[in-house]
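Long-time lurker, first post.

We've been arguing in lab meeting about whether flavin-adenine dinucleotide would sit comfortably in this protein at all. Half the group thinks yes, half thinks no, and nobody has a model to point at. So I'm putting the question to the forum: if I give you the sequence and the SMILES, can you give me back a predicted structure of the complex? Inputs are below. Any interpretation is welcome too.
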Amino acid sequence: MPDYDVIVIGSGIGGLISAGILVSRGLKILLVEKNVNPGGYLSSFKRGAFIFDSAVDCFSGVENGGLISNVLKLLGVDSQVHFVRVDPIRVSIFPDATIIVDSDVNVYKKKTDVAFPFRGRCSCRFFQIIRRCIY
Ligand SMILES: Cc1cc2nc3c(=O)[nH]c(=O)nc-3n(C[C@H](O)[C@H](O)[C@H](O)COP(=O)(O)OP(=O)(O)OC[C@H]3O[C@@H](n4cnc5c(N)ncnc54)[C@H](O)[C@@H]3O)c2cc1C
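Top reply:
Settle the argument with this. Predicted structure of the protein with flavin-adenine dinucleotide, as C-alpha cells:
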C-alpha cells in the first residue's frame, strides 16, 4: 500500500484545485472520486447530438487578478485555458416570458425594470446586492 501525504476525497472543482495546489507544493496526493468522471458539478454529459453542462455554465473571476485566473496561474496551466466571454450570459425561456441575462449588469437591470415594473423595490435591492458583490 503506497504512502500519501494527503487524501483528497471528491474530484469536484474544490478537490481538483486542492489536489493540484498540494501536488505543486511537492506533496504526494491520492484523489478519490466515487463517480466515473471527475469534475463534480463542473462537468458535462452527452445525450444524442447534444452536450449538456451538469451545472456550471459561467464563471466570474477569470479576469487578470481574479480568483480563477490566480488559481490557474498558481497551477501553471493558465496558458492552456481560454475563456470566451458570452453575451447574453443566459436565455431562460418560459411559457409566457423569455428572460435574457446580459453580461452588462446595467443593461440587464434596465431590461428587468421594463419587463417587471411592479418589482421596483425588490429589483433595486437585488441589483444593489449584486453591485456590492461585483465591485
Ligand atoms: C444547477 C447549478 C448551476 C450552477 N451554476 C454555476 C455557475 O454557472 N457558475 C459557478 O461558478 N457555479 C455554479 N454552480 C455552483 C457550482 O456548481 C459549485 O459551487 C461547485 O461546482 C462545487 O464544487 P465542489 O468541488 O465543492 O463540489 P462538487 O462539484 O459537488 O464535487 C464533489 C465531488 O465529490 C465526489 N464525492 C462526494 N462524496 C464522495 C465520496 N464519499 N467519495 C468519493 N467522492 C465523493 C462527488 O462525486 C463529486 O465529484 C451551480 C450549481 C448548480 C447546482
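For your lab meeting: The beta strands are 6-9, 29-32, 44-47, 50-53, 90-94, 97-101. The pocket of flavin-adenine dinucleotide is lined by residues 9-15, 32-35, 40-42, 55-59 (CB under 6 Å). Whichever side wins, do check it experimentally.
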